[in-house]
Amino acid sequence: MPNDIPEPQAVDSPITRSVIFIVATLSAGQDHASAVRAWCADIGALVRSVGKRVPSGNLSCVCGFGSDAWDTLFGAPRPAQLHPFREFGPSERRAVATPGDILLHIRADRMDLCFELATQLTGRLGDAVSVVDEVQGFRYFDLRSMVGFVDGTENPTGREVPEFTMIGDEDPEFAAGSYVLVQKYLHDMTGWNALTVEAQEHIIGRTKLSDIELDEGVKPSWSHSSLTTLVENGEEVKILRDNMPFGRPGAGEFGTYFIGYARSPAPLEQMLENMFVGRPPGNYDRLLDFSRAVTGGLFFVPSATLLEALAERDPQAAGVNVSASEPPDDASASASASASASAEPHQEGSLNIGSLKGNRQYE
Ligand code: HEM
Protein backbone atom coordinates (compact mmCIF):
# COMPACT_ATOMS: atom_id res chain seq x y z
CA MET A 1 0.00 0.00 0.00
CA PRO A 2 1.59 3.31 -1.05
CA ASN A 3 0.63 5.00 2.23
CA ASP A 4 2.80 2.53 4.13
CA ILE A 5 5.95 3.55 2.25
CA PRO A 6 8.06 5.73 4.55
CA GLU A 7 9.13 9.16 3.30
CA PRO A 8 12.92 9.40 2.94
CA GLN A 9 14.90 12.39 4.27
CA ALA A 10 16.27 14.79 1.64
CA VAL A 11 19.22 12.54 0.71
CA ASP A 12 18.53 13.23 -2.97
CA SER A 13 18.45 17.04 -2.61
CA PRO A 14 19.08 19.02 -5.81
CA ILE A 15 22.59 20.42 -6.20
CA THR A 16 22.87 23.56 -4.07
CA ARG A 17 25.40 26.35 -3.72
CA SER A 18 25.93 26.26 0.06
CA VAL A 19 26.24 23.73 2.85
CA ILE A 20 26.85 23.43 6.58
CA PHE A 21 28.08 20.13 7.98
CA ILE A 22 27.71 19.72 11.74
CA VAL A 23 28.98 16.75 13.75
CA ALA A 24 28.05 16.66 17.43
CA THR A 25 28.54 14.31 20.36
CA LEU A 26 25.75 13.47 22.78
CA SER A 27 26.12 14.69 26.37
CA ALA A 28 25.84 12.07 29.09
CA GLY A 29 22.59 11.62 31.01
CA GLN A 30 18.99 10.65 30.37
CA ASP A 31 17.75 14.25 30.29
CA HIS A 32 20.02 14.98 27.37
CA ALA A 33 18.95 11.82 25.56
CA SER A 34 15.29 12.80 26.06
CA ALA A 35 15.99 16.28 24.71
CA VAL A 36 17.56 14.86 21.55
CA ARG A 37 14.65 12.45 21.05
CA ALA A 38 12.12 15.27 21.35
CA TRP A 39 14.19 17.35 18.91
CA CYS A 40 13.86 14.58 16.28
CA ALA A 41 10.17 15.45 15.92
CA ASP A 42 10.95 19.17 15.50
CA ILE A 43 13.45 18.96 12.63
CA GLY A 44 10.87 18.75 9.83
CA ALA A 45 8.90 21.75 11.12
CA LEU A 46 12.07 23.84 11.53
CA VAL A 47 13.14 23.10 7.94
CA ARG A 48 9.66 24.13 6.75
CA SER A 49 9.66 27.35 8.82
CA VAL A 50 13.10 28.52 7.70
CA GLY A 51 12.75 27.24 4.13
CA LYS A 52 9.37 28.85 3.51
CA ARG A 53 10.92 32.30 3.85
CA VAL A 54 12.87 31.76 0.59
CA PRO A 55 10.91 29.18 -1.40
CA SER A 56 13.46 29.15 -4.24
CA GLY A 57 16.30 28.51 -1.80
CA ASN A 58 16.07 24.68 -1.82
CA LEU A 59 16.73 24.39 1.92
CA SER A 60 17.03 20.82 3.19
CA CYS A 61 18.49 18.97 6.14
CA VAL A 62 19.54 15.36 6.54
CA CYS A 63 20.10 14.05 10.07
CA GLY A 64 22.08 10.90 10.86
CA PHE A 65 23.04 9.02 14.04
CA GLY A 66 26.24 7.16 14.91
CA SER A 67 26.24 3.59 16.17
CA ASP A 68 26.77 4.22 19.89
CA ALA A 69 24.32 7.12 19.90
CA TRP A 70 21.66 4.95 18.30
CA ASP A 71 21.84 2.52 21.21
CA THR A 72 21.77 5.25 23.82
CA LEU A 73 18.97 7.23 22.22
CA PHE A 74 16.76 4.59 20.66
CA GLY A 75 17.92 1.09 21.72
CA ALA A 76 16.55 -1.88 19.78
CA PRO A 77 15.71 -2.45 17.02
CA ARG A 78 18.81 -1.01 15.42
CA PRO A 79 19.74 -0.65 11.73
CA ALA A 80 21.25 -3.97 10.65
CA GLN A 81 24.53 -2.61 9.31
CA LEU A 82 25.18 0.33 11.63
CA HIS A 83 28.62 0.16 13.28
CA PRO A 84 31.36 2.61 14.26
CA PHE A 85 33.51 4.08 11.46
CA ARG A 86 36.17 1.57 10.40
CA GLU A 87 39.66 2.94 9.90
CA PHE A 88 41.80 2.02 6.89
CA GLY A 89 45.37 2.50 5.76
CA PRO A 90 48.85 2.79 7.20
CA SER A 91 49.68 5.50 9.74
CA GLU A 92 51.10 7.90 7.14
CA ARG A 93 47.91 7.62 5.03
CA ARG A 94 45.02 6.75 7.28
CA ALA A 95 41.25 7.13 7.12
CA VAL A 96 40.86 8.09 10.76
CA ALA A 97 37.76 7.68 12.95
CA THR A 98 36.83 10.73 15.02
CA PRO A 99 34.07 11.27 17.59
CA GLY A 100 30.56 11.95 16.32
CA ASP A 101 27.05 10.92 17.39
CA ILE A 102 24.84 13.18 15.28
CA LEU A 103 25.43 14.49 11.74
CA LEU A 104 23.54 17.39 10.21
CA HIS A 105 23.88 17.93 6.45
CA ILE A 106 22.22 21.28 5.77
CA ARG A 107 22.02 22.36 2.13
CA ALA A 108 20.56 25.43 0.39
CA ASP A 109 21.29 27.82 -2.43
CA ARG A 110 22.04 30.57 0.06
CA MET A 111 24.28 30.44 3.11
CA ASP A 112 21.85 32.59 5.12
CA LEU A 113 19.28 29.77 4.92
CA CYS A 114 21.82 27.16 6.03
CA PHE A 115 23.03 29.45 8.79
CA GLU A 116 19.54 30.18 10.12
CA LEU A 117 18.54 26.51 10.13
CA ALA A 118 21.81 25.49 11.82
CA THR A 119 21.17 28.18 14.44
CA GLN A 120 17.64 26.94 15.10
CA LEU A 121 18.62 23.26 15.20
CA THR A 122 21.66 23.63 17.45
CA GLY A 123 19.89 26.21 19.63
CA ARG A 124 17.09 23.79 20.37
CA LEU A 125 19.57 21.05 21.27
CA GLY A 126 21.29 23.32 23.78
CA ASP A 127 23.75 21.47 26.04
CA ALA A 128 22.28 18.06 25.12
CA VAL A 129 25.11 17.89 22.56
CA SER A 130 28.56 19.35 21.96
CA VAL A 131 29.38 20.35 18.41
CA VAL A 132 32.78 18.84 17.63
CA ASP A 133 33.06 19.87 13.98
CA GLU A 134 31.27 22.51 11.93
CA VAL A 135 32.17 23.26 8.31
CA GLN A 136 30.66 25.81 5.94
CA GLY A 137 31.18 24.73 2.33
CA PHE A 138 30.59 26.46 -0.98
CA ARG A 139 30.07 25.42 -4.59
CA TYR A 140 33.24 26.25 -6.52
CA PHE A 141 32.76 27.50 -10.10
CA ASP A 142 31.34 24.78 -12.39
CA LEU A 143 30.94 22.13 -9.65
CA ARG A 144 34.72 21.84 -9.21
CA SER A 145 36.36 20.32 -6.17
CA MET A 146 39.10 22.17 -4.31
CA VAL A 147 41.66 20.34 -6.49
CA GLY A 148 40.15 21.93 -9.60
CA PHE A 149 38.37 18.93 -11.16
CA VAL A 150 34.61 18.73 -11.67
CA ASP A 151 33.21 16.62 -8.82
CA GLY A 152 30.04 14.52 -8.81
CA THR A 153 29.89 13.64 -12.51
CA GLU A 154 29.52 9.89 -12.04
CA ASN A 155 26.83 10.13 -9.37
CA PRO A 156 23.79 7.90 -9.86
CA THR A 157 20.81 9.62 -11.51
CA GLY A 158 17.07 9.00 -11.81
CA ARG A 159 15.89 5.62 -10.61
CA GLU A 160 19.47 4.64 -9.74
CA VAL A 161 19.40 7.07 -6.82
CA PRO A 162 16.92 5.19 -4.60
CA GLU A 163 18.27 1.88 -5.87
CA PHE A 164 21.76 2.71 -4.57
CA THR A 165 20.92 4.85 -1.55
CA MET A 166 17.67 3.63 0.02
CA ILE A 167 17.25 0.59 2.24
CA GLY A 168 14.50 -1.71 1.03
CA ASP A 169 13.39 -5.23 1.91
CA GLU A 170 16.80 -6.19 3.32
CA ASP A 171 16.00 -4.31 6.57
CA PRO A 172 12.25 -3.58 6.46
CA GLU A 173 12.03 -1.74 9.81
CA PHE A 174 14.51 0.79 8.44
CA ALA A 175 13.15 1.02 4.88
CA ALA A 176 13.83 4.30 3.04
CA GLY A 177 16.78 4.96 5.36
CA SER A 178 20.41 5.31 4.20
CA TYR A 179 23.95 5.09 5.51
CA VAL A 180 26.21 8.12 5.18
CA LEU A 181 29.98 8.43 5.53
CA VAL A 182 31.75 11.76 6.03
CA GLN A 183 35.43 12.74 6.05
CA LYS A 184 37.03 16.16 6.25
CA TYR A 185 40.12 16.39 4.02
CA LEU A 186 42.85 19.05 4.02
CA HIS A 187 44.89 19.48 0.83
CA ASP A 188 48.50 20.35 0.18
CA MET A 189 47.62 22.78 -2.58
CA THR A 190 51.22 23.91 -3.04
CA GLY A 191 52.26 20.34 -3.82
CA TRP A 192 49.19 19.70 -5.95
CA ASN A 193 49.60 22.89 -7.99
CA ALA A 194 53.25 22.05 -8.61
CA LEU A 195 52.13 18.98 -10.61
CA THR A 196 51.54 19.25 -14.36
CA VAL A 197 47.89 19.15 -15.44
CA GLU A 198 48.64 15.80 -17.09
CA ALA A 199 49.93 14.35 -13.81
CA GLN A 200 46.82 15.63 -11.99
CA GLU A 201 44.61 14.07 -14.68
CA HIS A 202 46.31 10.70 -14.15
CA ILE A 203 45.63 10.96 -10.42
CA ILE A 204 41.93 11.77 -10.85
CA GLY A 205 41.44 9.61 -13.98
CA ARG A 206 39.63 12.37 -15.91
CA THR A 207 40.59 15.41 -17.98
CA LYS A 208 40.70 18.64 -16.00
CA LEU A 209 39.08 21.18 -18.33
CA SER A 210 36.50 18.98 -20.08
CA ASP A 211 35.89 16.38 -17.31
CA ILE A 212 36.08 13.39 -19.68
CA GLU A 213 37.15 10.00 -18.31
CA LEU A 214 40.63 8.97 -19.50
CA ASP A 215 40.81 6.01 -21.89
CA GLU A 216 41.39 2.69 -20.17
CA GLY A 217 44.83 2.41 -21.80
CA VAL A 218 45.91 5.73 -20.27
CA LYS A 219 44.11 5.76 -16.91
CA PRO A 220 46.36 4.32 -14.17
CA SER A 221 44.97 1.55 -11.93
CA TRP A 222 45.85 3.83 -8.97
CA SER A 223 43.74 6.74 -10.25
CA HIS A 224 40.96 7.97 -7.98
CA SER A 225 38.37 7.05 -10.58
CA SER A 226 39.70 3.47 -10.99
CA LEU A 227 39.91 2.76 -7.26
CA THR A 228 36.44 4.10 -6.49
CA THR A 229 34.77 2.19 -9.31
CA LEU A 230 33.25 -0.96 -7.86
CA VAL A 231 31.82 -3.75 -10.00
CA GLU A 232 30.01 -6.76 -8.66
CA ASN A 233 28.55 -9.47 -10.85
CA GLY A 234 29.23 -7.31 -13.88
CA GLU A 235 27.31 -4.34 -12.51
CA GLU A 236 28.65 -1.10 -11.08
CA VAL A 237 27.85 -0.34 -7.44
CA LYS A 238 27.48 3.41 -6.97
CA ILE A 239 27.22 5.82 -4.06
CA LEU A 240 25.70 9.33 -4.01
CA ARG A 241 28.26 12.06 -3.25
CA ASP A 242 27.90 15.75 -2.54
CA ASN A 243 31.42 16.85 -1.61
CA MET A 244 31.93 20.55 -0.93
CA PRO A 245 35.07 22.69 -0.90
CA PHE A 246 35.79 24.80 2.18
CA GLY A 247 38.74 26.72 3.52
CA ARG A 248 40.45 29.80 4.89
CA PRO A 249 43.05 31.00 2.39
CA GLY A 250 44.59 33.39 4.91
CA ALA A 251 45.27 30.46 7.23
CA GLY A 252 46.50 28.24 4.40
CA GLU A 253 43.52 25.90 4.84
CA PHE A 254 42.14 24.29 1.68
CA GLY A 255 39.70 21.45 2.16
CA THR A 256 37.15 19.05 0.74
CA TYR A 257 34.32 17.79 2.91
CA PHE A 258 33.52 14.33 1.54
CA ILE A 259 29.99 13.00 2.02
CA GLY A 260 28.75 9.75 0.49
CA TYR A 261 25.33 8.13 0.86
CA ALA A 262 24.65 4.44 0.20
CA ARG A 263 22.22 1.68 0.95
CA SER A 264 24.84 -0.15 3.00
CA PRO A 265 28.18 0.89 4.50
CA ALA A 266 29.87 -1.85 2.42
CA PRO A 267 30.52 0.04 -0.86
CA LEU A 268 31.64 3.16 1.06
CA GLU A 269 34.11 1.10 3.09
CA GLN A 270 35.31 -0.84 0.06
CA MET A 271 36.11 2.46 -1.69
CA LEU A 272 38.00 3.67 1.37
CA GLU A 273 39.96 0.44 1.53
CA ASN A 274 40.83 0.71 -2.18
CA MET A 275 41.91 4.33 -1.76
CA PHE A 276 43.88 4.07 1.51
CA VAL A 277 45.19 0.49 1.48
CA GLY A 278 45.18 0.04 -2.29
CA ARG A 279 43.79 -2.40 -4.83
CA PRO A 280 45.88 -4.55 -4.66
CA PRO A 281 47.43 -3.39 -1.35
CA GLY A 282 50.09 -0.75 -2.05
CA ASN A 283 48.38 0.42 -5.25
CA TYR A 284 46.75 3.30 -3.37
CA ASP A 285 45.04 6.53 -4.47
CA ARG A 286 47.72 9.16 -5.22
CA LEU A 287 45.19 11.90 -4.40
CA LEU A 288 46.06 10.95 -0.82
CA ASP A 289 49.67 12.12 -1.34
CA PHE A 290 48.11 15.61 -1.43
CA SER A 291 45.04 15.12 0.80
CA ARG A 292 44.86 14.14 4.48
CA ALA A 293 41.67 12.90 6.14
CA VAL A 294 41.35 14.63 9.52
CA THR A 295 37.87 13.36 10.48
CA GLY A 296 35.78 10.25 9.76
CA GLY A 297 32.30 9.16 10.77
CA LEU A 298 29.62 6.69 9.74
CA PHE A 299 25.95 7.47 10.44
CA PHE A 300 22.52 5.98 9.84
CA VAL A 301 19.93 8.27 8.26
CA PRO A 302 16.43 7.14 9.23
CA SER A 303 13.54 7.87 6.87
CA ALA A 304 11.79 11.17 7.64
CA THR A 305 8.81 9.12 8.82
CA LEU A 306 10.94 7.15 11.27
CA LEU A 307 12.88 10.24 12.39
CA GLU A 308 9.66 11.82 13.59
CA ALA A 309 8.49 8.60 15.26
CA LEU A 310 11.84 8.19 17.07
CA ALA A 311 10.78 11.04 19.36
CA GLU A 312 8.48 8.54 21.06
CA ARG A 313 11.12 5.85 21.55
CA ASP A 314 12.41 5.31 25.05
CA PRO A 315 14.95 2.52 25.39
CA GLN A 316 14.77 2.78 29.19
CA ALA A 317 11.00 2.34 29.34
CA ALA A 318 11.17 -0.56 26.89
CA GLY A 319 13.69 -2.27 29.19
CA VAL A 320 16.17 -2.58 26.35
CA ASN A 321 19.56 -3.90 27.34
CA VAL A 322 21.65 -1.42 25.40
CA SER A 323 24.94 -3.28 25.61
CA ALA A 324 23.29 -6.47 24.40
CA SER A 325 22.21 -4.73 21.23
CA GLU A 326 25.81 -4.01 20.19
CA PRO A 327 26.99 -6.15 17.29
CA PRO A 328 29.83 -8.34 18.58
CA ASP A 329 32.91 -7.28 16.64
CA ASP A 330 32.35 -3.75 15.48
CA ALA A 331 33.66 -1.50 18.21
CA SER A 332 37.00 -3.21 18.29
CA ALA A 333 37.08 -3.30 14.49
CA SER A 334 36.87 0.48 14.45
CA ALA A 335 39.66 0.98 16.92
CA SER A 336 42.10 -1.57 15.68
CA ALA A 337 41.52 -2.06 11.97
CA SER A 338 44.95 -2.62 10.47
CA ALA A 339 46.19 -1.48 7.12
CA SER A 340 45.18 -4.74 5.55
CA ALA A 341 41.96 -5.26 7.47
CA SER A 342 38.96 -6.31 5.44
CA ALA A 343 36.31 -3.65 5.01
CA GLU A 344 33.54 -6.19 5.09
CA PRO A 345 33.58 -8.59 7.99
CA HIS A 346 29.84 -9.13 7.52
CA GLN A 347 29.92 -9.88 3.85
CA GLU A 348 33.04 -11.92 3.16
CA GLY A 349 34.37 -9.87 0.27
CA SER A 350 31.02 -9.47 -1.44
CA LEU A 351 29.39 -6.10 -1.93
CA ASN A 352 26.14 -8.02 -1.97
CA ILE A 353 24.78 -6.13 -4.93
CA GLY A 354 22.17 -8.84 -5.38
CA SER A 355 20.36 -7.35 -2.43
CA LEU A 356 20.06 -4.09 -4.35
CA LYS A 357 17.74 -5.93 -6.66
CA GLY A 358 15.72 -7.26 -3.75
CA ASN A 359 16.63 -10.89 -4.36
CA ARG A 360 19.18 -11.32 -1.58
CA GLN A 361 19.18 -10.37 2.07
CA TYR A 362 22.03 -8.63 3.87
CA GLU A 363 23.61 -10.84 6.46
C1 HEM B 1 39.96 14.34 -1.12
C2 HEM B 1 38.71 14.01 -1.24
C3 HEM B 1 38.08 13.73 -2.57
C4 HEM B 1 38.08 14.49 -3.70
C5 HEM B 1 38.72 15.87 -3.90
C6 HEM B 1 37.36 13.76 -4.71
C7 HEM B 1 37.16 14.19 -6.00
C8 HEM B 1 36.62 13.42 -7.02
C9 HEM B 1 36.55 13.81 -8.41
C10 HEM B 1 37.09 15.14 -8.98
C11 HEM B 1 35.96 12.82 -9.09
C12 HEM B 1 35.69 12.73 -10.61
C13 HEM B 1 34.34 13.20 -11.04
C14 HEM B 1 33.17 12.44 -10.50
O1 HEM B 1 32.75 11.42 -11.04
O2 HEM B 1 32.65 12.85 -9.47
C15 HEM B 1 35.61 11.80 -8.12
C16 HEM B 1 34.98 10.62 -8.43
C17 HEM B 1 34.58 9.70 -7.50
N1 HEM B 1 34.88 9.72 -6.16
FE1 HEM B 1 35.94 11.11 -5.17
N2 HEM B 1 36.92 12.58 -4.17
C18 HEM B 1 37.35 12.51 -2.87
C19 HEM B 1 37.13 11.49 -1.97
C20 HEM B 1 36.37 10.37 -2.25
C21 HEM B 1 36.07 9.34 -1.29
C22 HEM B 1 36.54 9.31 0.17
C23 HEM B 1 35.27 8.44 -1.94
C24 HEM B 1 34.62 7.16 -1.42
C25 HEM B 1 34.64 6.72 -0.20
C26 HEM B 1 35.08 8.90 -3.30
C27 HEM B 1 34.31 8.27 -4.26
C28 HEM B 1 34.25 8.64 -5.57
C29 HEM B 1 33.51 7.90 -6.59
C30 HEM B 1 32.64 6.67 -6.37
C31 HEM B 1 33.72 8.56 -7.80
C32 HEM B 1 33.18 8.17 -9.19
C33 HEM B 1 34.14 7.21 -9.84
C34 HEM B 1 33.70 6.83 -11.24
O3 HEM B 1 32.64 6.21 -11.37
O4 HEM B 1 34.42 7.17 -12.18
N3 HEM B 1 35.76 10.07 -3.44
N4 HEM B 1 36.04 12.20 -6.89
TrEMBL record:
What cofactor is this protein dependent on?
heme b
Which GO CC terms are listed, alphabetically?
cytosol
InterPro entries named in the record = Dimeric_a/b-barrel, Dyp_perox_C, Dyp_perox_N, Dyp_peroxidase
Q: Which SUPFAM superfamilies match?
A: Dimeric alpha+beta barrel (SSF54909)
Q: Which UniProt keywords apply?
A: Iron, Metal-binding, Oxidoreductase, Peroxidase
Pfam families assigned: Dyp_perox_C, Dyp_perox_N
- Amino acid composition bias (Low complexity), ranges on this chain: 323-344
Region of interest: Disordered? 317-363
| Membrane spanning stretches | none
Organism of origin is Paraburkholderia piptadeniae
Q: Which residue numbers delimit the Dyp-type peroxidase C-terminal domain?
A: 144-304
Say which family it is in: Belongs to the DyP-type peroxidase family.
Protein name from the UniProt record: Dyp-type peroxidase family protein
GO MF assignments:
heme binding; metal ion binding; peroxidase activity
Which intervals hold domain Dyp-type peroxidase N-terminal? 9-139
